[in-house]
Specification:
This protein has 437 residues and is α/β, with parallel strands linked by helices. The chain is built from 16 helices and 11 strands. The chain folds into 2 domains: 79 residues, SCP2 sterol-binding domain (Nonspecific Lipid-transfer Protein, Chain A); 319 residues, 3-Layer(aba) Sandwich (Rossmann fold), CATH 3.40.50. It has a 7-stranded mixed β-sheet. A 4-stranded mixed β-sheet has the order 2-1-3-4. Strand 8, helix 11 and strand 9 form a beta-alpha-beta unit. The termini are far apart. It comes from Paracoccus limosus.
Length: 437
């Protein structure tokens, strides 16, 4: 019988990227020049590497049974070389599809969704401040100019969304999954809209509430702590954005989500869905067990689908897709910015986490986020996952382009409006608005 040591040594000898492994006995395998060394403290963890189950190996790292020596960027080069089948899971069998459907239904009640969101976002606002930009925008940035830094690229992303939605003064705008309020406040400040946001995170709700009060915007900006299914506006909104939200909805509830977006939007209005998708048409999770790692340690309840399936659901809900843009490389760069920011301040990040949880738990959370940010950067680099902005309209309203027959919506069917030189000056519009939802 071949020993685990021998299996691992054979894998190291054939690996395209140099990697060293230190066994629990202290023996070191692999080249001296390797930038990354994986140190095993538990013999049982060796089986994870031998079997190529990187998700389970990541769990052992989080639990402290395995230690990584080396930076996240060289580690991800090793991971890319180890992941089987270019990171894509094999085609699911019929019984797996049935199980996915049942599991999705069970995982996405209102109570579970709220708990899952809080599991991730309510770790500590101060922790997120360490590695996000000053606005705490926790979604893909838009590096319109390659020379942009992260804060500039995040502002460019906020403005890109507002431009695509063609926001106008006084319009009723809703942000589904408003995060720490960056888009909500940007749209109100620079485009003069009457803005409503919703979130399931208590930390985010409290943060945005304070920002609204501090800026004196309470007469035309508001935030609600509620599920998207429970939002009941007096009248439909003119414009809608959902950023980094539909990844949490679940396959079984995607039709409900699409229908709800349609109901929240007035005829002729515009909606923009900004979200992560998988590249495999079968909606399979990322291979090598990496999807399982994210599900367990980072985003419980997160489920990704292919962009074509998302567009199909929107279409069945009566929404017309008028523009779709893939920002995949932008998200890879965004995630590396976050990862580099965190790596540069690890002692501070650990100290911040220890203020809200036990030291052992804080160390686990930090190890999980280090792997998560770098691993997601790799996933977008390798095209295992993508990021799409899907612009939708609910047909039936007054046309923005009267010269085009059938243009019965706010979309002008000409993309030049997105790239106008400057946004309007919201400062000239005063405050007032349509009032609360």
């Amino acid at each position: 019988m071949v020993s685990l040591d021998r299996i691992i040594k054979d894998r190291l000898d054939t690996l395209a990227v140099p990697l060293a492994v230190r066994l629990p006995t202290g023996q070191r395998l692999g080249p001296e020049a390797a930038e990354v060394e994986i140190e095993f403290h538990d013999p049982a963890a060796l089986a994870r590497l031998a079997a190529g189950n990187l998700g389970a190996l990541g769990g052992e790292i989080v639990n402290g049974k395995v230690t990584i020596h080396g930076g996240m960027r060289p580690l991800m080069r090793v991971v890319a070389a180890l992941v089987p089948d270019d990171g894509r899971a094999e085609r699911p069998r019929p019984w797996q599809r049935v199980w996915w459907g049942l599991a999705s239904i069970l995982r996405h009640s209102r109570q579970r969704d709220a708990a899952q969101i809080r599991f991730h976002y309510d770790v500590s606002d101060d922790f997120y401040r360490i590695w996000l930009d000053p606005r705490q925008v926790y979604s893909c940035a838009y590096f319109r100019d390659p020379a942009m830094d992260l804060p500039q690229a995040q502002e460019a992303k906020l403005d890109l969304i507002c431009r695509k939605l063609d926001l106008r003064p006084g319009e009723r705008f809703v942000d589904i999954g408003a995060g720490w309020g960056a888009l909500l406040l940007h749209a109100a400040r620079h485009y003069g809209v009457d803005a409503t946001g919703i979130t399931l995170s208590q930390n985010q709700f409290d943060h945005v509430t304070r920002l609204i009060a501090a800026e004196g915007l309470g007469d035309r900006v508001r935030i609600h702590l509620c599920d998207y299914r429970d939002l009941q506006p007096a009248v439909p909104f003119d414009k809608l954005a959902s950023v980094g939200m539909f990844e949490h909805v679940g396959r079984a509830h995607m039709a409900i989500y699409a229908q709800r977006l349609s109901e929240l939007l007035r005829p002729g209005g515009l909606a923009l869905n900004h979200g992560i998708t998988v590249t495999g048409l079968d909606d399979a999770m990322i291979g090598g067990g990496l999807g399982d790692f994210i599900e367990r340690y980072i985003f419980p309840g997160g489920e990704l689908i292919h962009v074509s399936h998302a567009i199909r659901q929107f279409s069945q809900a009566g929404l017309e897709m008028v523009d779709t843009e893939n920002l995949r490389p932008h998200y890879a760069r965004t995630l590396w910015c976050w990862s580099d920011n965190l790596e540069a301040r690890l002692p501070e990040a650990l100290a911040v986490l220890e203020q809200t949880m036990q030291p052992e738990r804080a160390a686990e959370v930090l190890r999980a986020f280090r792997l998560y940010l770098a691993g997601c950067a790799l996933s977008f680099e390798e095209s295992w996952t993508s990021l799409y902005q899907i612009l939708l309209t609910r047909p039936g309203g007054p046309p923005a382009a009267p010269d085009l027959p059938g243009a019965d919506s706010s979309y002008p069917f000409r993309r030049d409006y997105i790239y106008r030189a400057e946004p309007p000056d919201a400062g000239a519009w005063g405050r007032g608005g349509a009032g609360p939802v």
